[in-house]
Structure formats: C-alpha cells, structure tokens
Amino acid sequence: MRTVPSALADHTLLDALRHSEYARLDAQGHTYLDYTGGALYAESQVREHLELLQRAVFGNPHSGNPASQYATAQVLRARDAVLRFFNADTEEYGVVFTANATAALKLVAGSTKSIMW
Q1: Closest Cα to residue 49, out of 20, 24, 74?
Q2: Model pTM?
Q3: Helix/strand/coil (H, E, C) string of 39-99?
Q4: What is the pLDDT of residues 3-55, one digit of tens each?
Q5: Does residue 83 contact residue 90 with C-beta atoms inside 8 Å?
Q6: Whose CA is closest to 77, among 55, 52, 102, 99?
Q7: Per-residue pLDDT tens for 62-108?
Q8: 92: domain range?
Q9: What is the dihedral of CA 71, 76, 82, 83, to 10 degrees?
Q10: How many CB atoms lie within 10 A of CB 8?
Q11: Same structural domain for residues 47 and 1?
Q12: Predicted local confidence at residue 31, as pLDDT
C-alpha cells in the first residue's frame, strides 16, 4: 500500500479553508465532488460581489450611458487581468468571455471549422 505524501497527510490548511469559505457544506451535510460541472463559490467571493453590486450600477457594456461605461471599464479591466495572469502579449492575444465552457467550445469549434475543412 502506498503512503500519502506528508504535504497531503496534513490537511490543516484544507480544513481551515473549508471552515472559512465553504462552511455551508458541513452545515448542510454535503460532500461536493462535481468540480467539472461547476466550481463552488467561496464565501469571500459572495461578500465581495455583493459589495460590488451594492456600490455600483452596471449597464450594458455595449451602450454609452454612464452605467454602461462603468461596465465596459470593468470588462476591460477583467480582460487585462486575464492577459497579465497568463503573461500574454496584448498585441498577440485577446480575451473573449462566454457564458460557460460549452459556449466557449462551440465558439472555438465554429471559428475553426472554416479553417480546418
């Protein structure tokens, strides 16, 4: 029988993360293993997003009113953050946001179909 590496055997950090960010799992008796279907949101994500929604008004990023201009600025900031995270050159790469992984795969498949066939 194989032994568990010591870094995995000590799950103190994982326990602390579960307690601070995912306490609802224990409170409701859940074990969540379907990570490929959708990631669980952390408590800090909910708090920060709530604060953002309470202090800002977001409009359609394709319009010109102040709320839309704010939304456009947030989309551009998010794109820049993704490119920086991957250390990607903005002259060579772009970022497209989609509703989910399936929509992204359909977009890629549809755009490469004319190239490949």
Answers
A1: 74
A2: 0.66
A3: CCCCHHHHHHHHHHHHHCCCCCCCCCCHHHHHHHHHHHHHHHHHHHHCCCCCCCCCCCCCC
A4: 666 666 778 888 899 999 999 999 999 988 876 667 889 999 999 999 999 99
A5: yes
A6: 52
A7: 899 999 999 999 999 999 999 999 999 999 999 999 988 889 999 98
A8: 65-117
A9: 180
A10: 9
A11: yes
A12: 87
CA–CA separation, 67 and 57 (whole Å): 6
**Rounded CA gap, 38 and 46, in Å?**
15
Q: How many domains does the chain have?
A: 2
Instruction: Specify if 97 maps to a domain.
Output: yes
Residue type, 55: R
Tokens (6 digits) for 103: 């929509």
Residue 60 in any domain: the answer is: no
